[in-house]
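We close this part of the discussion by returning to an individual protein. The amino acid sequence and the backbone structure tokens for this protein are reproduced below:
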Amino acid sequence: MSKLLSEKIVYFYRKQKELVRLKENKCLKCNSEEVAEGTDFMPVKPLNKKFSMGSNKIYTFCLNCGEVLSIRIENPMKFKE
């Protein structure tokens, strides 16, 4: 097996492992399962709608080490035209 192919397989395996950890809400950095959600109340606003209120970002993070596991938009429908 070539080195490039083996590196791609290792990369794919690591990414699959990270996806499983995210689904389980397990920290990728310290393996803790203690996670919480919060917001910074700074809305993301559509570029094409100057007067839109936008939508807050929701962060999922580890309570043990502070690693951010995911960021999502609270109301993505505000961005559909």
